[in-house]
Specification:
105 residues; alpha+beta; three-stranded antiparallel beta sheet; two-stranded antiparallel sheet; 5 strands; 20% helix; 40% strand; elongated
């Protein structure tokens, strides 16, 4: 790894937003709690991508209908360097075990 410098793992997490759709709640509250274990392990939020749907939505008081989204995707990044790998190894192994069904080896 030292010959390549730093490397980066990326992961996405979906967060629901407290919204109504066709008079039904899509989520009862917005929370970033699903991100907490990731950020404690050193992952950083680097981007958000709103989730959109192809149905016209209309807010009360707005004359023109518009497309909208419910929830969004959050992109997380973990930079790994030779200096940080010792303290990150547990997070890296957990990531590979959960999302790739094996070890980081």
């Amino acid at each position: 790894m030292a010959s390549f410098g730093a490397t980066t793992l990326v992961h996405d997490v979906y967060l629901p937003v407290d919204s109504f759709f066709n008079r039904e709640r899509t989520a009862y509250q917005f929370t970033i709690q699903p991100l907490a274990p990731w950020t404690r392990a050193g992952w950083k939020v680097v981007a958000t991508v709103p989730k959109t749907i192809g149905i016209t939505l209309q807010n009360r008081g707005v004359a023109t209908p518009f497309g909208g989204g419910i929830g969004g995707n959050v992109l997380l990044q973990l930079e790994i360097t030779t200096e940080t790998i010792e303290r990150q190894i547990n997070a890296i192994e957990a990531y590979y075990a959960v999302f790739h069904g094996g070890s980081a080896d």
